[in-house]
Amino acid sequence: MSRTLPLDSSLLKALSGQPNFPPPIWLMRQAGRYLPEYREVRGKVASFLDLCRTPGLAAEVTLQPLRRFDLDAAIVFSDILIIPYALGQKVEFVEGEGPKLEPVKDGKAIAGLNKSNTAKALAPVYETIELVVAALPKNVPLIGFCGAPWTVATYMVEGGGSKEQAAVRLFAYRDQATFQHLIDLLVESSADYLVNQVKAGASALQIFDSWAGSLPEDEFERWCITPTKRLVELVKAELPEIPIIGFPRGAGVLAERYARETDIDAIGCDTSMPVGWMRRLQEQLPVQGNLDPLLLVAGGEALDVRVGAILETLGQQPFIFNLGHGILPETPIEHVTRLLNLVKGRSS
Ligand code: CP3
What we know:
By secondary structure, the chain is α/β, with parallel strands linked by helices. It contains 16 helices and 9 strands. A 7-stranded parallel β-sheet has the order 1-4-5-6-7-8-9. Helix 7 (118-135) packs parallel to helix 10 (176-200), helix 8 (149-158) packs across helix 9 and helix 15 runs parallel beside helix 16.
């Protein structure tokens, strides 16, 4: 399928380094459980993975938030753990508990993963993208995504979410060479996956490194910066023009190095990053973020004040308004409407 780029997209303008006020806005996890229409579709399938694997339904939930709010981008509905699933690992999403994977504990388990079935396993995502792009207004781009190799590896080795990523960090300390194989496999399969998302119609990409913050300096370089740099290189070798947003959640002061060394086009900042610091990063590249998702749950004057401060500090330079992490299921819909009005300069 050939790709016609949205010509007049405020997101793509920001990603190319042009300031524009009001800034574009989209929200991480903008499709999800805070929307009753999402819960309704979710109720039609037995499992969350089935939703990701059914293009008609995945396209529908991708489009739902755009019907309610004038967001400046859609993000394809899938999950970062679709890659371990495509590599043959057992992945399940347990209601109320989050993802559960059969942990990859040693070199033998890593050697058992393979790329031979990935094209088939990921085909529904590409089909979803085609359906979404056909339905989106021409000036609204679709964002494709993957998890960063490090973050995906944490789920693969831990067997799910974890507080400190202790098992995976120990694995990487004790047997760096074997862990490197896993990271390399993730770099290669994620690069193919991102390239194919763009070929199907995505106009920008985001790499989610949700657990970047659990690594000390040397390991941050080894498992976060180097694999992300390689991933970006592989994608850009095929698609030099595609803008890529990196989101190294929790990276703190290391975010500056991440931005400099990975060749990403924009950096997503989490809630803990001071806006003054983001303003400094903006001298280097466009920034995205970083409203506290809990403030969107709380609403009220605190929300108004914070949104005002973010816009005032960052709005005159290349900036994409977003949350500092995914939207929470308990978020009231009217607070999202309020946020959109505030960012777009409308009184409500
Ligand atoms: O709207 C969008 O942003 C697109 C869809 C999207 C999902 N997950 C859908 C989802 C995206 C971009 C993700 C990314 C993702 N998935 C990350 C990176 C961002 C982050 O939050 O740090 C991570 C770490 C995952 C792994 C994952 N998937 C977890 C830990 C969970 C369970 C926690 C939870 O919120 O339930 C999921 C499940 C998941 N992925 C849901 C959704 C809408 C909820 C499951 C459901 O609806 O039944």
